[in-house]
Amino acid sequence: MGALVVEGKSDREFLIIDGQQRLATLSLLALAVISKLLNHAERGNDPEANRERAAALRSRFVGEKDPASLVESSKLFLNETDDPFYQDYLVQLRSPRNPRGLPKSSRLLWECFQYYQKRLEDVAELVAGGTAIAELMSETVARQLVFILITVENEINAYMVFETLNARGLELTTTDLLKNYLFSQVQVPADLKALQRRWRTLVATIRQERFPEFLRYHLLCEHPKIRSQRLFKLVREQARSPQEVFVLLDALEARAELFAALSDPNHGYWAELADARPYIRELDIFRVRQMTPLLFTVWERFSKADFVRVLKLVSVISFRYSVVSRLNTNALEPAYHQAAKAVLEGIARNPAQVFDRLKPIYVDDAKFEQDFSLLELDTGQRKKLAKYMLARLEHDFSGRPCDPDTDPATIEHVLPENPSEEWGEQFPREHWESSVYRLGNLTLLESSSNRRVGNLSYLDKLPAYAGSAYFLTRHIHQIAPEQWSPDHLNKRQRELAGRAARLWRSEFA
Length: 509
Prior knowledge:
This protein is mainly alpha-helical. The chain folds into 4 domains: 3-149, no CATH class; 169-261, no CATH class; 268-363, no CATH class; 377-497, no CATH class. It is built from 25 helices and 5 strands. The strands form 2 sheets. It has a 3-stranded mixed sheet.
């Protein structure tokens, strides 16, 4: 079951640092088993034995009943959001009146409990009586599920453990660990409430699972080569007092909304800066994030118009470097760090000076054209990227706007994905696999025509191409009027590469 990392608070109390979800899930299984045993007893099915089994399992896995109040207690306590529901409903085996009104995480706990109840009904050998159900917990779970237990003295030691283990759930645990450290530096109750309130807003803005990424990019504005494992150490160095904690929080809050907006072209941030949206969308399609520290600093120091120019610049660089040339991404973060730091220090004061610092990662035209002329895109996995590229080329060809998100065109493979034997006469079979996803073999076509041409021969496809509204597609006839061969594909892709070098180019190059 992986590593269970706990911090020993006493000889009988432990703070679970990694493993909360696994232990909570197992406790829900135990509660579902206990509920099932009590149901058997209520129906008169060996009632005394099943109640005794339920009580024994509860005492062993869940907690004990208070002899005075007769309220069931728990060995496990969840976070402040979910613990009230866990203690008052799940541990007591009470159903909530309005499950839909629960916080999302509490609702997931309830749904998990219900799931286990249903599975206990579905497994035939568990339906008959209480013995098999009780053995599920006392034998299968208790004896066959194995954890590696790691007990640490404090959060710093815990973080060192995570560096070594790289355990499942690292990002979520990192966020909790950082939060615990920051909260430990603040002692005044009013300050704690303010920190808690602001922390919730911050995490809600950027999403909990992305917090380590956000914090890392924030620190990369000033610190080079930050690995995820160094985050905790750097935070400890920057926030050693309540004042420093709130200074860090101020800085994070100032960049949180922008961080969220950089992943969403429809974010309200761009309502008054619509020119930014196409480039935000492109970066999302390219799946690149390394330029985030630079965009933080440019947003803070440049005009909004110059921010858009830098946004366009990093989109072009990303397209050339990552999408087409597919170069090693290790060089990107150092380059963007240097550019971000130059902006912060006032050395780079405009987009042209930013480009000067990014020249090492700007792929020159000769290499770009060469790599583009060989580019292959699996349209199953990268369909959105393929349509974006074809739409941009169509716009450049025809002068007519072609939005990849809204245009109804579908992607047509000139050489079909599943060619018939007839294709072997003009396009040798040994080239099929390496050619079908080449960009030169892809084009835009109306969906009705695409369905109609399917796996037809090239000559049978040509009338549909000639009647298409897409200039990119009509032009195929000029390149290959009679047949489609590897030479024709290569010629078309070289022509597209030359056009792409002009289309995806920095204004400062």
